């Protein structure tokens, strides 16, 4: 049995939770932590999650499909904010939920305390314009308009969302992440890497933290925008990400550096 089939079968064994039920969950004092692992370890995690977690189901499926396009300035200001470790820092993106066809223009802001806030407006498609309030939305949040930014990197990935029985945390699990650079036209992917993000309510007990420790999966930052950018555009300054790519490459058992 291949690993993708194992993932689907283990998901089938998890109790479902609907999108409507998910909306009832309010993480008022939320903390976010990212982890990076492999598909093999994901299979083990899903086995250990049985009887402790629900799996979100949408349109009968527990695996959702996403597409995201990131926008930046000519000088790559948003990328450089992250590269240089600046806080607060921001990212502009258009995310499409491929299973429903719904798209949102989003601005993510990470503050000096490591907290991330997201604001968004629905848009007709990935091809955004300054109409329907988009210009005002961007000017208010990032002090730039449509003429100041352009699409840079697009990604596609599968996402699993788990919720613990106590409904005090959400776990998003992204895999099969693929990148396409809108400028260089280069493509890349992260192979078997899996990006996990734990969103939980303060310091309440977390079943998955025990599971992650058991599997020796340690916290690790991972920005899809920045990693996708350095993997597909050799011209970008990337000193701060070189060691990260080496570590991720060893985990993926492949060279992730831009060709």
Question: How would you characterize the overall build of this protein?
Answer:
- By secondary structure, the chain is an alpha+beta fold.
- It has eight helices and eleven strands.
- Strands 1, 2, 3, 4, 5, 6, 7, 8, 9, 10 and 11 form an eleven-stranded mixed sheet that branches.
- Helix 1 (3-12) runs parallel beside helix 3.
- The two termini are 33 Å apart.
- The mean pLDDT is 91.
Salient structural properties:
single chain, 259 residues, alpha+beta, Hypothetical Protein Pfu-838710-001, 11 strands
Provide a compact summary of the structure.
The chain is an alpha+beta fold. It has helices at residues 3-12, 19-22, 39-48, 77-83, 134-142, 207-214, 224-232, 239-252; strands at residues 15-18, 30-38, 53-57, 64-72, 89-97, 102-110, 116-123, 150-164, 169-181, 187-189, 193-201. Strands 1, 2, 3, 4, 5, 6, 7, 8, 9, 10 and 11 form an eleven-stranded mixed β-sheet that branches.
Topology:
Layout: H1 3-12, E1 15-18, H2 19-22, E2 30-38, H3 39-48, E3 53-57, E4 64-72, H4 77-83, E5 89-97, E6 102-110, E7 116-123, H5 134-142, E8 150-164, E9 169-181, E10 187-189, E11 193-201, H6 207-214, H7 224-232, H8 239-252
Parallel strand pairs: 1-3
Antiparallel strand pairs: 2-11, 3-8, 4-5, 4-8, 5-6, 6-7, 8-9, 9-10, 9-11
